């Protein structure tokens, strides 16, 4: 069983920056999972904003390209999301997600951005609030 724990959320002014972290445990090999970030705003469905595969290839949602950067440290079993130029619409509960990765099959990273529900594992989330 894979367990995911997010941290780093908080309240930030518009235009500011924040960095989220997610640590994983219980999996056989951290590099064999695609990892992603999926926020959920109040009253809205979950969306995928960023994901990274075991070879560190990334994909981003259109709304965050050029502002967010996703990265991972496999040695530390840790996923990061650097969030810059924050906007009020970025507000939400940010969930760390994971899905088994097999590069011979479909593009899991892209799928996690288009439809974050493809991920099998979810953390409890960390709240990010962006105020004007």
Question: In words, what does this structure look like?
Answer:
With 132 residues, the chain is mainly beta. It is 5% helix and 45% strand. The strands form two sheets. Strands 2, 4, 5, 6, 9, 10 and 11 form a seven-stranded mixed beta sheet that branches. The longest helix is centred in the last third of the chain and has 7 residues. The N and C termini lie far apart (40 Å).
What is the strand and helix layout of this fold?
Elements: E1 3-7, E2 10-13, E3 18-25, E4 33-40, E5 50-52, E6 58-60, E7 68-73, E8 78-83, E9 92-100, H1 108-114, E10 121-122, E11 126-131
Mean pLDDT: 95
Task: Provide the helix percentage.
Answer: under 10%
Structural class, by secondary structure, is mainly beta
Radius of gyration using CA atoms only? 14 Å
Task: Count helical runs.
Answer: 1
Described by the principal axes of the CA atoms, the overall outline is: globular
Count of individual beta strands: 11
Helix/strand order, N-terminal first: EEEEEEEEEHEE
Tell me the major beta sheet.
7 strands, mixed
């Amino acid at each position: 069983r894979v367990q995911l724990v997010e941290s780093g959320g908080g309240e930030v002014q518009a235009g500011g920056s924040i960095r989220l972290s997610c640590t994983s445990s219980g999996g056989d090999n951290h590099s064999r999972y695609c990892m992603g970030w999926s926020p959920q705003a109040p009253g809205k469905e979950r969306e995928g904003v960023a994901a990274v595969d075991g070879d560190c290839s990334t994909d981003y949602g259109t709304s965050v390209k050029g502002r967010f950067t996703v990265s991972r440290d496999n040695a530390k079993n840790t996923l990061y999301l650097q969030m810059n130029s924050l906007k009020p619409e970025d507000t939400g509960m940010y969930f760390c997600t994971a899905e088994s990765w097999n590069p011979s099959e479909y593009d899991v990273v892209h799928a996690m951005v288009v439809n974050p529900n493809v991920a099998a594992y979810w953390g409890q989330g960390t709240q990010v609030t962006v105020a004007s």
